[in-house]
Write a sequence for this structure.
C-alpha cells in the first residue's frame, strides 16, 4: 500500500509553545489529507480535512485558530498546535487520500505523540 | 453519533484459530468500508476494503464480509498469529463523501 510519513514521531514541549507536525505522502499525490486525534484506548476523532491549495475544513468543536493546518503541496500537510497546553497532549495521526488507479483509500501516517508539560 | 459500531471491545483467540471481528453500521448510504489494524503506538494500517456492490472480498489470510440487509460487516482472520494482536477498526464512507467514520475498535488478543 501507499506510504504516509509523519514527523516528528514524538515531541515534548512546554506549555505555551507551538508545535508543528508534518504529514507527507511518499509515493502518491494527495489533494486531501486528514488530521485525527486519538486518546488512549479510544477511536480516532477527525479534527479537520486538509485540502491542497485551499482552507482546511474543521470539524465541529475544533478550534481553527489553535490547530492551524496548511496543505502547501500535493504531498505535504502540516498541523501546528499553537500555544499548546497540557490538555492538548494526545496522539495525532494524519491520513492521505489516494485516488490513483481507480482507488479511493485513506492511508495513515505512524502518528505523533505530543506531550505538553 | 457514529454510524459504525463494533459488537465486542475485546476478542481473545488461540494461536492458529480463526478470528472473526464484527461491525455494525447504521447509515444505508454508506458504500465503502475499510478495516484497519492499529498496533500500540502506531497509526492505523490498511487491511482490506469492500464496496457496497460486493458481499465478500478476500485478501491474504483475511476476508471481509458485507451484509447490507442487516448493515453488518465482519473481518475474518485465518490461522491467527501473535502478530495479529492489535486493535481493529472498521470505518465507513458515505457515498460521494470523503470523511471516514470509525467504529470504537476491537482489541484482538492472541493467546499462545
Amino acid at each position: 500500500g501507499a506510504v504516509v510519513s509523519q514527523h516528528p514521531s514524538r515531541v515534548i514541549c512546554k506549555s505555551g509553545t507551538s508545535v508543528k507536525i508534518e504529514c507527507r505522502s511518499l509515493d502518491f499525490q494527495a489533494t486531501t489529507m486528514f488530521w485525527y486525534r486519538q486518546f488512549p484506548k479510544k477511536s480516532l476523532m477527525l479534527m479537520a480535512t486538509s485540502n491542497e491549495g485551499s482552507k482546511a475544513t474543521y470539524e465541529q468543536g475544533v478550534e481553527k485558530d489553535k490547530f492551524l493546518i496548511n496543505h502547501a503541496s500535493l504531498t505535504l500537510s502540516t498541523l501546528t498546535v499553537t500555544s499548546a497546553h497540557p490538555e492538548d497532549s494526545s496522539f495525532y495521526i494524519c491520513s492521505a487520500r489516494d485516488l490513483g488507479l481507480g482507488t479511493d483509500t485513506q492511508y495513515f501516517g505512524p502518528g505523533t505523540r505530543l506531550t505538553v508539560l | 453519533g457514529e454510524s459504525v459500531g463494533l459488537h465486542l471491545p475485546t476478542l481473545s483467540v488461540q494461536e492458529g484459530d480463526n478470528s472473526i471481528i464484527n461491525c455494525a453500521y447504521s447509515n444505508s448510504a454508506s458504500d465503502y468500508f475499510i478495516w484497519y489494524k492499529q498496533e500500540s503506538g502506531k497509526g492505523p494500517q490498511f487491511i482490506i476494503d469492500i464496496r457496497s456492490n460486493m458481499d465478500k472480498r478476500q485478501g491474504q489470510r483475511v476476508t471481509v464480509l458485507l451484509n447490507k440487509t442487516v448493515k453488518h460487516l465482519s473481518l475474518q482472520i485465518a490461522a491467527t498469529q501473535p502478530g495479529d494482536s492489535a486493535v481493529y477498526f472498521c470505518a465507513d464512507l458515505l457515498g460521494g463523501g470523503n470523511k471516514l467514520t470509525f467504529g470504537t475498535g476491537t482489541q484482538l488478543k492472541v493467546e499462545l
Observations:
- The two ends of chain A are 36 Å apart (CA to CA).
- Chain A touches chain B through 23 residues (CB under 8 Å).
